[in-house]
Design a protein that fits this description.
Elements: E1 3-13, E2 18-28, E3 31-33
Antiparallel strand pairs: 1-2, 2-3
Organism: marine sediment metagenome
Protein name: Amidohydrolase-related domain-containing protein
InterPro entries: Metal-dep_hydrolase_composite
Length: 41
């Protein structure tokens, strides 16, 4: 699979007290990860 970056996505994460905060979301092989390497689109 490939890497994907969703720019300025709204993140809702009650465990980390995020309520609609704009963040970049990184996906590698279908799993959300902290960062991806340079070939992400």
């Amino acid at each position: 699979m490939s890497n994907l970056i969703i720019k300025n996505g709204l993140v809702y994460d009650p465990l980390n007290k995020l309520d609609g905060e704009k963040k970049d979301i990184f996906i590698k092989d279908g799993v959300i990860v902290e960062k991806v390497n340079g070939d992400a689109k």
